[in-house]
UniProtKB/TrEMBL annotation:
The lineage of its organism: Bacteria, Pseudomonadati, Bacteroidota, Cytophagia, Cytophagales. Gene3D superfamilies: 3.40.50.2300, Ribonuclease H-like superfamily/Ribonuclease H. GO terms for molecular function: nucleic acid binding. It comes from Persicobacter diffluens. This is Protein argonaute. Belongs to the argonaute family. Long pAgo subfamily. Residues 343-658 form the Piwi domain. InterPro entries: Piwi, RNaseH-like_sf, RNaseH_sf. CDD domains: Piwi_piwi-like_ProArk.
Length: 670
């Protein structure tokens, strides 16, 4: 693509042009959907701003100050911003989105590690109000007047004119919490409100009450377990055993320390004032889950296996890695031969680090994935624990996370989602694409099913033959494979619940093509499932908003970022949902907690490619499914469990391609 006068374009391309040059109008829709147009427009804007004294650009997506504000060794650190376009289909114009950054300069090459370390130090703790200060400082420099008008190329007479306003777009959010008090700012110009949205309540989880057999709700998983009992507590001694059993694989020289570490799961651990707005004291495994934890003794129990691996100095690392993996899996087989079902805990010492992964002649290996895949094929759940975990100071958090892991991996259910939308199945599509040497790609698809309560049921692995890849190497299904995917959903749901759902919602990270829509729809319709929603879920990094509040009737920038559950519905097909953001503190509802505490959150963009369900309903369902990752006791994950688990399972699943079509319990993979 090229911007210039007719004469310039004619001279440059004269040997290639076979007809007259014609002027064609370019719409906002063209710029949004055609990458070349978007890059060209952004380049023109960057070029204009770089005419400001002391401002430089890469003519791609970034501006920075010529003068550095700090140095680290021989590296200059410059204040910088990324520029991008954000498009709203309800608006006649596009928005310029600004994202604070830094630019590094040096006469020597700057390593990737140096870039990451310096960027992390300067940007990770860029809180909401500091983020806004940087944006305002750049706004004052770039917009010396309220409106900017320029031609590209400058003074060329092309008529290729840009008009940019210095106005800031605001969004008004209606908070659903009945306890929230609404305040209106004085002297606010309502024309600045370009977006309107809502803030959903934090989804509730369901537990069993301590004194009675009734359901009890709490949005906080740890507090819900401590104050109540796990959801499936009544199945102990009926379907499940009356204890959770562990087995262990550990080198003998670490066994005593490892046994002591595991035994402390039975004890209480205080938070020590670490993450007090979320973390609560760990009261011991039996107190949390109302069931005992059976840990084998390291010196006289067949469920504790020694694995004394010594690397062969005559072999290369990749050969020793395979030897280690096979030694561990042989011990897992020994344990599995016993009558007692248990979760196998594998201790990974630091000395094994050189053998945990390799890339050799196009073949990749990961010890974690190898163990998980082998064990899943045998129906065995596993937990890998690294040596550094034993000395980690976050004891309370570690024992909370491990206790949940052991409970879930015994195929139990700690909580379910409080969902009013019954008879609905949620499915996630995950892919693993690999290429070994010159062989063609192997694509493993994973369909993972959740019921209306958010319980992950089963998943199925399938090798996909007829697919195509886009420029980003994302695979898309043929009509035939999409039809078969729909068949898998029907079968998996029926196998799990002995009935078919009335409605199916399918999530994935890429768009749904026409073949995928028609194949899935036809397959489900054929079984009598008429309600089908096909949903694309991705981050929208260009749609970050700075949180504001009203104090003494004046609008001001908040110290904390946007609340989790905020949702801006842009039209009946798309919405922006903040699955990551501020939540109430567990110690005091008026306090606030921000998971991770890094910078300000980007929303996920929800796009409905097919279906009749309201985009608001779809958004609340996704928010709920962010609380159903049983591999963590975080309050939520940034993505719904349908997406998180499917991609993880597909990655490990490529090692199980020979078991194509087999159905698994997903808890074997977490």
């Amino acid at each position: 693509m090229h911007v210039g006068t007719l004469t310039d374009i004619g001279n440059i391309f004269k040997d290639r042009i076979k007809s007259d040059i014609k002027r064609e109008p370019i719409s906002k829709n063209d710029v949004e959907n055609v990458g070349a147009f978007k890059s060209l427009m952004l380049q023109a804007v960057l070029k204009y701003f770089s005419t400001i004294k002391g401002v430089e650009t890469n003519l791609k997506d970034k501006l920075w100050f010529t003068k550095s504000f700090s140095r680290q060794g021989n590296i200059g650190i410059h204040k910088s911003i990324y520029l991008s376009f954000y498009f709203d289909k309800n608006s006649k114009f596009a928005y310029i989105a600004l994202t604070p950054s830094i630019h590094l300069s040096s006469n020597n090459e700057i390593s990737k590690e140096q870039r990451q370390s310096i960027s992390k130090n300067h940007l990770e703790k860029l809180y909401n109000n500091k983020y806004d200060e940087i944006l305002q400082s750049w706004r004052n420099i770039l917009f010396s007047q309220q409106r900017i008008k320029f031609e590209s190329p400058a003074s060329s007479g092309t008529g290729f004119n840009f008009l940019i306003s210095a106005n800031t777009a605001f969004g008004e959010i209606d908070v659903f919490d009945p306890n929230f008090r609404k305040y209106s700012p004085q002297n606010y110009d309502q024309r600045q409100t370009q977006f309107k949205g809502v803030q959903f309540l934090e989804p509730q989880l369901v537990f069993k009450n301590v004194a009675t057999d009734v359901d009890f709700k709490d949005y906080h998983p740890m507090r819900g377990l401590v104050n109540n009992r796990p959801y499936d507590v009544n199945l102990n001694g009926v379907i499940h055993s009356n204890e959770v059993n562990l087995s262990a694989i550990c080198p003998s020289k670490y066994s005593e320390n490892f046994y002591r570490f595991l035994s402390e799961l039975q004890l209480q651990h205080k938070t020590e004032n670490i993450n007090p707005d979320y973390l609560i004291d760990y009261p011991g495994f039996a107190s949390v889950f109302n069931i005992s934890l059976n840990i084998p003794n390291y010196d006289n129990d067949e469920r504790w296996q020694d694995v004394n691996f010594i690397a062969d100095s005559k072999l290369e690392n990749h050969e020793n890695a395979i030897r280690l993996a096979r030694l561990i899996t042989s011990k897992i087989e020994q344990i599995s031969s016993s009558q007692c079902r248990s979760t196998v805990v594998v201790f990974i010492p630091k000395e094994w680090q050189p053998f945990e992964s390799y890339l050799y002649e196009g073949e990749s290996f990961d010890l974690h994935d190898y163990i998980k895949a082998f064990s899943a094929s045998k129906g065995i759940s596993t937990q890998l624990i690294r040596e550094e975990t034993l000395i980690d100071k976050l004891k309370c958090q570690i024992y909370w996370w491990l206790s949940l892991s052991f409970y879930v991996k015994s195929l139990r259910t700690p909580w379910i989602l409080n969902n009013q939308e019954k008879n609905t199945a949620y499915a996630g599509i995950g892919y693993s694409v690999s290429k070994i040497r010159d062989k063609s790609e192997i694509v493993i698809g994973c369909s993972h099913i959740y019921d209306s309560n958010g319980q992950g049921l089963k998943y199925r692995l399938s090798k996909i033959d007829n697919y195509f890849l886009d420029k980003q190497n994302n695979p898309y299904l043929s009509y035939k494979d999409a039809f078969q995917f729909g068949v898998s959903i029907r079968e998996l749901f029926y196998q799990s619940l002995d009935k078919l759902p009335e409605r199916v919602v399918i999530h994935k990270r890429t768009k749904f093509t026409e073949d995928e829509i028609n194949g899935i729809k036809s397959s489900l319709n054929k079984a009598g499932i008429k309600k089908v929603d096909l949903i694309e879920i991705n981050y929208d990094y260009d749609a970050r908003f700075v949180a504001m509040n009203v104090y003494q009737r004046q609008l001001q920038v908040d110290r904390f970022p946007i609340s989790r559950g905020t949702c801006i519905i842009t039209n009946k097909y798309t919405a922006l949902l903040w699955s990551h953001g501020i939540v109430p503190s567990v110690r005091q509802p008026n306090y606030r907690f921000y998971l991770g505490g890094r910078s300000i959150p980007a929303p996920i963009k929800i796009t409905k490619h097919y279906g009749d369900s309201n985009i608001s309903t779809i958004s609340t369902e996704i928010l709920g499914l962010t609380k159903m990752n049983w591999n963590s006791l975080d309050l939520y994950s940034k993505l719904p469990s349908t997406i998180d688990s499917s991609n993880q399972i597909a990655r490990i699943g490529k090692l199980l391609s020979r078991f194509e079509g087999k159905t698994y319990d997903y808890r074997l993979f977490i």
